[in-house]
Amino acid sequence: MRLTLILLSPLQRQGGNFSTISRISSYLTSHGHRCLMEDPKTFQSITEFQAFLHHKSVDLVIGIHAYRSGCLIRASTVPSILILGGTDVNEFYKDINKLSIMTEAVHTARYVVVFSPSMLSRTSSLWPEMPSNKVKEIKQAVITEPSSSFCLLKYLKSHNHIPAGTTSLRNITVFLLVGGIRPVKDPVFLIDKFSEWHREDCSVYYVIIGPKIDAEYFEETFWPAVKQSPGVIYIPGLSKEDTHAAMRDCFSLVNSSKSEGMSLAILEAMDVGVPVLARRVTGNRDLIQDGETGLLYDTPQEFVLKARSIMSSPEKRDQIVAMARDQVAQQHCYKVEGHAYMRLVQTALSEECSV
Question: Given this model, what pLDDT does residue 142 score?
């Protein structure tokens, strides 16, 4: 039976949410279903959303974020599946109004999806009354498609970020952070240390790629820090394919987030074959075994020590890359993820029919 589904998610193309909802849509579409991707902010009211569902004869709603999509799902008369974001369980719950909306949404949804064991545990503690069989853990899959035409070295030279005479990426060491510019990603956490390191060794660069998500944070905190820090480079955003190519070309991916659910950028870096140095927060610990599939750090000082350790040991770097790639291949497969969502859709609708 061909179903009509609406998939709700922030649709900024440079964001992880867009990649996640696009993968789910691609899989369901390939199996004959009609998938409509919409940004929750498109709808001005629940009434407008309900009218849209009726007009499009929607069978099921799948929404990312218990707050952003939950604002609409909480009053939906159409069956729904809610995918929790790390921001929901790590940040938004601190706001009583957002927690109230998320609570309505998780109770309205037929199923709630989390990406990792720590998100599962956090969900259980936030909503202990929710039946355990309603919450499903589905690990995010990863698909990387590095552009064959993008070269990080050429990009940095053409935008005057590095000396024009730099002839090879082997002449510089680029650490790359990928993520939207907002407080929870804490892109300034390592800036001072990187600038200090660049003054000691001018071949070391810190490149940050990501769209401006929080305008106030960008203007008041992030951009002033970047402007006054030698060796720190900001790229407003690249296509997904060019971002994957930048990952491929860098020495290491960096994550400095204050909290994470499951970082798609970390999975992408593992898949393209570069080591990850990530802040030691719960979501990152779900993905990285320190010293085996990546490196974890707490402070900027520890970051530099661990970064230097793989710079001085290519064998250790290669070993980490190989183990991380194996982990991604075994645990973050596109077909496994897609099949899990297909089963969940079928189960959700069969339960609806039996009510």
Answer: 94
